[in-house]
């Protein structure tokens, strides 16, 4: 049984082979507590490389809210 579910975007900097430089790689992560009251995380969606100068945090929050519904 899982309790207290939440979602957030995790951005890690990785080499983007298409552009040949380091860029932000985004994943949508689900966080919850299991029956033993331990916090668990799992990747729901690998979004991929995003240009963090073009994508604003408000846009990521809006995407997260839409996908949570």
What does this structure look like?
By secondary structure, the protein is α+β, with helices and mostly antiparallel strands. It has one domain (3-68). Helix content is 17%, strand content 57%. The protein has one helix at residues 57-68; strands at residues 3-16, 21-33, 39-50. Strands 1-2-3 form a 3-stranded antiparallel sheet, covered by helices on one side. A hairpin with a 5-residue loop joins β2 and β3.
Secondary structure topology:
Layout: E1 3-16, E2 21-33, E3 39-50, H1 57-68
Antiparallel strand pairs: 1-2, 2-3
What are the salient characteristics of this protein?
single chain; 69 residues; alpha+beta; 3-stranded antiparallel beta sheet
């Amino acid at each position: 049984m899982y309790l207290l579910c939440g979602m957030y975007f995790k951005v890690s900097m990785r080499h983007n082979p298409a552009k040949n430089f380091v860029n932000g790689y985004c994943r949508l992560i689900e966080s919850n507590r299991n029956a033993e009251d331990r916090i668990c995380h799992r990747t729901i969606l690998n979004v991929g490389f995003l240009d963090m100068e073009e994508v604003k945090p408000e846009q990521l929050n809006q995407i997260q809210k839409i996908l949570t519904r």
